[in-house]
Specification:
single chain; elongated; 38% helix; alpha+beta; 26% strand
Length: 137
């Protein structure tokens, strides 16, 4: 799990919108003086979690570790394999157009199941505020 400092920019009834400048490797790049890349701000809406927050407060946000490899396999690799395998199998039974339509339908079904899986397990991977950071003067 990683934690990051973010700034409160908006407050709703039960949630807050936090912002943070996206960090990058620009400072280490030898071409950074000539680059036209713009600064990017990451915005995140999360629950207040019982904290009394004001706009401008700095908070420490815990982000659960999610395996990038697992996400890539679920979103890209498995659907590609499913598409190719279903296309090959369908080509033995149907014409090319029908096989393509069936294969695309199978992949759409896979993504529908993946969406249900995502809704079920999404709460485990939601960022949350763990403390308000007070600046010492």
């Amino acid at each position: 799990m990683a934690s990051e400092k973010m700034v409160v920019v908006e407050i709703d009834n039960s949630s807050v919108i936090l912002a943070k400048e996206r960090t990058s490797m620009c400072g280490k790049c030898p071409a950074n003086m000539f680059c036209t890349g713009e600064k990017q701000t990451v915005r995140l809406q999360i629950d207040k979690a019982g904290f009394d927050l004001k706009i401008g407060d700095q908070v420490l946000v815990k982000t659960p570790a999610a395996s990038g490899i697992k996400v890539a396999v679920l979103v890209y690799t498995i659907p590609t394999i499913v598409f190719v395998m279903s296309l090959i199998l369908c080509l033995f039974l149907f014409s090319e157009i029908v096989s393509l339509a069936i294969s695309l339908s199978v992949v759409a079904g896979y993504y529908s199941l993946l969406r249900l899986y995502d809704k079920k397990f999404r709460k485990k991977f939601r960022p949350e505020i763990i403390q308000v950071v007070r600046e010492t003067q």
